Amino acid sequence: MYEGAQVLVDQELRAAYDLPGNRVFLAQPWDAAAAPDQSVLMHELIHALQLHNRDWECLQAPEWEAYELQDAWLAAQGVPSGFDWLHVYFLSRCPRDHHP
């Protein structure tokens, strides 16, 4: 329960950006001193900037860019992201009405 509503969170989900509420939700445990956790917050803040400043084909479309920026930031901290880029690709695809 969160603010009177039931929220379903996937076990893999570390954070989420709520566009209508303009809020970031962080899944626990979360450590402000840990670069990987900082990058999760940064990823969601990137979504806030993306979604309020550009038009996107669908809500999934900004994921690739956010993951690229998160990966670059982690690399600058000397931390490998370990992202599964094929998975990120599928996360960032927009639904289609038909298959090619």
Low-confidence stretches: none
Write down the overall mean pLDDT.
88
The main sheet orders its strands as 1-2
Share in helix: 40-55%
- In total, the number of domains comes to 1
Count of extended strands: 2
Q: End-to-end distance, in Å?
A: 41 Å
Largest sheet: 2 strands, antiparallel
Q: Count helical runs.
A: 3
- Name the structural class: mainly alpha
Strand content: 5-15%
Q: What's the shape?
A: globular
Radius of gyration: 15 Å
What's the helix-strand series?
Answer: EEHHH
In short:
Helices cover about 40% and strands about 10% of the residues. By secondary structure, the chain is mainly alpha-helical. The termini are far apart.
Question: What would you say this structure looks like, in words?
Answer:
- The chain has 100 residues and is mainly α.
- The chain has one domain.
- The chain is built from 3 helices and 2 strands, in the order E-E-H-H-H.
- It has helices spanning 35-53, 63-76, 85-91; strands at residues 15-18, 23-26.
- The protein has a two-stranded antiparallel sheet.
- Strand 1 (15-18) and strand 2 (23-26) form a beta hairpin.
- Helix 1 runs antiparallel to helix 2.
- The protein is globular, with a radius of gyration of 15 Å.
- The mean pLDDT is 88.
Keywords:
mainly alpha; 100 residues; 3 helices; globular; 2 strands; single chain
Question: What's the structural blueprint in terms of helices and strands?
Answer:
Elements: E1 15-18, E2 23-26, H1 35-53, H2 63-76, H3 85-91
Antiparallel strand pairs: 1-2
Helix pairs in contact: 1-2
